[in-house]
Model the fold of this input.
Amino acid sequence: MDGRNPDTAVALGDAYFVAEMPQKAYRAYKKALSVHPRHAEAHFCLAEFWINISRFPAAVRALEKAVQCDPDRHYYHCRLGELYLHQGDFGRARSQFERAIELAPEDGFYHHKLGDLYAQRDELDAAAAEYETAIACSPAEDFYNTRLSAIYVRQARLSQALEQMSRANRIAPGRHVYQHLMGELLLAVGQPEAALSAYRRAGPLGEYDRDWVQRWHLRAGLPSQLAQVGWGLEIYGP
Done:
């Protein structure tokens, strides 16, 4: 490794990180910073190292340095916002997400992150607006529609919630979990036969999908139905 080239050290650190050799990655990032203390990407990568071992205060400090060194990298701001949100600092998290949006207004990911923040604070209209913008920016992303669907449930806009889940299903028809949730929403809007068909199309859900449904229930403010696909069949018969 060229000890005078911080970019080479960062690239080596990234290779170690991908190879699950975190201590060697850490030493490479620190080497880069010893050569170039204001190397923004080295600070950012060091933050990812700290996140990987759940050292969140150290990660915040590293990301704050990355932002100071290169304030125009939108993904630095977003990542820092995520860490502030993890710490419960909504004000600083919001500022970072908004800055990321200012730098990359057409990136739906940053709008969805700001929507998540508003959803956590029960600012449902603001959350819905950000998710709607995320969908407009990235119409091929199915999960933004599921986020908006959950907000619509919390706002008692069940028909619109069903439409968003249906849209997610059209984008990613292989996700059986979407069919399952469509079944729940069809029941909620008084369409039991259509709900039964959706449950049948969903079929049995694996452990990951059951967990996913439970998380969606939490986002939607609902008690979980434990995501057992037999639920609809038990009510309406075979």
Notes: Residues 226-238 have pLDDT under 50 and may be disordered. The longest helix spans residues 22-35. The two ends are 66 Å apart (CA to CA).
